Amino acid sequence: xKRLTVLAALAAAACVLGARPAAAALTxxxxxxxxxAIVTEVGGDKVTVTSLAKGYQDPHxxxxxxxxxxxxxxxxxxxxxxxxxxxxxxxxxxxxxxxxRIQPGAEGYLDASQGARILDLPSGAVTRAMGDVHPxxxxxxxxxxxxxxxxxxxxxxxxxxxxxxxAATYKQREEDFERRLTAAVQRWKAQLAPYKGxxxxxxxxxxxxxxxxxGLNVIGFVEPKPGIPPTPQHTLDVINAMKAEKVKLILxxxxxxxxxxxxxxxxxxxxxxxxxxxxxxxxxxxxxxxLFDYDVALLLTAIKETAAK
Amino acid sequence: MPRMCSWRRAAVVAAVVVGFxxxxxSGQQAAPPAPDIAALQATIEQLRQQLDxxxxxxxxxxxxxxxGVQPAASTPAPxxxxxxxxxAPVAPALAAPGGDSGPVPVYGNTSAASKIFNPDMAxxxxxxxxxxxxxxxxxxxxxxxxxxxxxxAVVDPYARADFFLAASPDGLEVEEGFLTFPTLPxxxxxxxxxxxxxxxxxxxxxxxxxxxxxxxxxxxxxxxxDEGLNDAGVSVSRLIPNSVMFLEATGEVYNGDNGVFxxxxxxDLTYVGRLRGYRDLTExxxxxxxxxxxxxxxxxxxxATTRLFGVDATIRYRPLRRAIYxxxxxxxxxxxSRRDTATLDDQADAFGAYVSGDYQFARRWFAGGRYDWSDxxxxxxxxxxxxxxLLTYWPSEFSQIRGQxxxxxxxxxVDANEVLFQFLFSIGAHGAHSF
Lengths: 309, 435
Prior knowledge:
The structure holds two protein chains of two kinds.
Chain A: H1 2-24, E1 26-30, H2 33-43, E2 47-51, H3 66-74, E3 77-80, H4 90-96, E4 109-111, H5 145-162, H6 167-192, E5 199-202, H7 208-214, E6 217-221, H8 232-245, E7 249-252, H9 259-268, E8 271-274, H10 288-308
Parallel strand pairs in A: 1-2, 1-3, 3-4, 5-6, 5-7, 7-8
Chain B: H1 2-26, H2 34-63, H3 82-85, E1 120-133, E2 142-156, E3 159-168, E4 171-181, E5 188-196, H4 217-222, E6 230-239, E7 246-254, E8 270-280, E9 285-297, E10 305-317, E11 327-340, E12 347-362, E13 365-375, E14 383-396, E15 399-409, E16 415-428
Antiparallel strand pairs in B: 1-2, 1-16, 2-3, 3-4, 4-5, 5-6, 6-7, 7-8, 8-9, 9-10, 10-11, 11-12, 12-13, 13-14, 14-15, 15-16
């Protein structure tokens, strides 16, 4: 009898100890590193966050690896970019996660695009003759830093809902993040203000929100259509357009081949910029602020270099 | 008391004035005081100006290039709700279904609001042609080998459903049609319906996801050919927690009548078990290992059974920074069929295997090779052997063109050299495939 009591006490202690870490930090999984960075800003040490995709990876083409199933299985919150960015790989992972909390529509599923300002909403008929179009709008919306604030607000509200005792912390951290972000946005915009309306070429349609936020004018794409690799004729058209408009900058994501952009650059006297569209795309872009610090600095250096030519 | 009197008179006058003034004022609506008219006119003018401004904005938005020249809003106050900060312009016809901005998209049909609950639908055409001589198992010169129609949707908060109908020259059949319960307690994933059994790798794949035009020989000789191990049943799988790798155990029960097994009475069920382990070796390389077992009855005599064993190994390489340009998939599967024969206490052991590699060397190009051999389940003394080389071209994610040169040495002593080619094309919203 006494032994039983001791055992019961031990079991109870084990339960308490075992449950402790789970209560200490909310387990969050995000699809991209940008969302993970914002969750870290808002959640601090109240959350542990993992991103499925790496920052230097094309978020359209992530492999639905079983190791991701293990991460999703333990997640208390899943934050997705939405707008069909992850449609090619996330749905089977969520189904296989055996985790009722993060199924679409459940409490632990957050689509960060709700509340964000979405651009490139197609008007008129949408067909795949237009390439790999996103009928719900451009999913690269986190590249507008003001959307970063909106994403943070959605995340803070969701974290507060899931972890009510720490709601005040999330609110306070979110407000602090937005304060710092607002100041940073003013700084970035001021740095780029002299070049407002600067015309650039981008590889994929990833930079719509970035261009919109910082006053760049994207006049063409290396891809003839979204998701369609460059063709010789289209490349020639881009070269001619760049020459006619005296465009010097080609923005490329780190996961695209540089052969065509480099050949365009050498034909036009332009410069290829491997900008990072996501946190962690390069080691220097370690958080949401450093992402824009890095890209803005790269852009400024290139503007000065090409203008000097 | 003159004072008193004058007070009373004043009161009477006041009462009369009030008494008349009331109706008089209400009857005087046609002549409001002049300042009110001015105020109204000012309001109207103000509204008109606002309307003009809005119209100009709409016109500007409509003529704007898709890159967007909307004025970037000033930094919103941190506490302001998003919707109030700035309502994003939304093309009404394409607002997200269920969103709160703009009507639900309806394409052509005015009463189609319920379309938002329609399942994702897709059709995948698999057009196969062949040339060369094959005296044993000839394919048609040209055929629409299969048109796979898929319907996929969430059923309710507890389940989702997936239907795959395959229309082939033999007719229309339900290739798969099952319900999945992803929210069960205990970490279980349960599927109910007609399913491709979790036996090995190729058996679980739809024809359009194979890296070859045809199926390797062990599938034809030991696993029931095109149909494969595909039956009505229940599948239960669970993750086995451990700190080393992804480990998944699956147990399945099937009706027992399928490409491999025959059910002569109701209790002649087919049982399938599988253990799958997966581990990331590096961020771009991973190893996928599995072992499978199946048990069921065959038709040689009452209570005769067949046991199938399989092991499979897959290695994948796909560098994350160049994921759309380069990848390699190497795979091998080994099968062993142990089958009771017509003579008592005699069992036929047949083996089969394939080794395959598929390498993407450019964004749109894949090269591959395969070596496969298999005994025949009924007569293990007969072994077919085959080798293939393949080249695949992807115009886009939604179509592919493939050529395969195949040399087969059949057990009959006949050799066949053939060229197979395939056009695969997909329309609609086909759900992503599991890894």
